[in-house]
Each structure stands twice: as C-alpha cells, then as structure tokens.
C-alpha cells in the first residue's frame, strides 16, 4: 500500500478543482488523486505543530526559520460561485494507519 497524505475537500465543494501546495499548482494524476471527498497526495506534506516552547522561541526571534509548513489551498465551485479554501488540514499516513487499526 502506498503512503498518502490526505486533505479533505471543504463541505459542498464541487468541481472543477484547482489545487495548490505552497502556491504551486498541482496536477491531478501526477501530484495527487481525487478519492471520494479527499485529495490524496503522492509526495510527503508536512504541517508543523507548534508547541509552547517553539511558539515562544519564534516570538522572541530565536529561530531564523519556521521549519517545514506546507499549505494546501483549493479553488472550487460552491452554489454556482467560485470559492477558495486555504490552509486545509493535512492528514499524514500515520493518522490514517492508526484509525484503521482495530
């Protein structure tokens, strides 16, 4: 089984979909596939979870970079109008595997 990073489409989202990772357009079939109401990405995506210590260090300027923090945005149709969702939740393969275990 291939490891996939998943992103749920917003409620009511209708095609056509335009998908972006960090502002870069993605292509269905080569970058991701549509499975039900989710986008399944072929390459790893990361969403940095900030703990209190990391947030405080960033606030105080102790780190020059913020680490890896991918952003997935989707343009779609909703009620006959164009809509955009930004910073959608990234579900790593580990969470999918944990949820599937009995």
Tally of domains: 1
What is the string of SSEs from the N terminus onward? EEEEEHEEH
Instruction: Write down how many β-strands occur, each being a DSSP E stretch of 2 or more residues.
Output: 7
**Number of helical regions:** 2
Rg over CA atoms: 16 Å
N- to C-terminal separation? 18 Å
- CATH topology tier name: Immunoglobulin-like
Mean pLDDT: 84
Shape: globular
Biggest beta sheet summary: 4 strands, antiparallel
Strands side by side in the biggest sheet: 3-2-6-7
Helix content: 10-25%
Low-confidence runs: none
Q: What's the CATH first level?
A: Mainly Beta
Structural class: alpha+beta
CATH architecture: Sandwich
Question: What amount of the residues lies in strands?
Answer: 25-35%
Structure, described:
This protein has one domain (5-100): Immunoglobulin-like (Sandwich), CATH 2.60.40. The protein is 16% helix and 34% strand. It is built from two helices and seven strands; from the N terminus they run E-E-E-E-E-H-E-E-H. The chain has a four-stranded antiparallel β-sheet, with no helix packed on it. It has a three-stranded antiparallel β-sheet with strand order 1-5-4, with no helix packed on it. Strand 4 and strand 5 (38-41) form a beta hairpin. The longest helix is centred in the middle third of the chain and has 8 residues, at 52-59. The model has no long low-confidence stretch (mean pLDDT 84).
């Amino acid at each position: 089984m291939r490891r996939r990073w998943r992103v749920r489409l917003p409620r009511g989202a209708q095609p056509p979909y335009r998908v972006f990772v960090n502002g870069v357009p993605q292509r269905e079939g080569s970058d991701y596939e549509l499975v039900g109401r989710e986008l399944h990405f072929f390459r790893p995506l990361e969403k940095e979870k900030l703990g209190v210590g990391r947030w405080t260090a960033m606030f105080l300027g102790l780190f020059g970079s913020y680490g890896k923090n991918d952003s997935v945005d989707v343009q779609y149709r909703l009620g006959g109008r164009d809509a955009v969702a930004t910073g959608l939740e990234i579900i790593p393969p580990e969470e999918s595997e944990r949820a599937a275990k009995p």
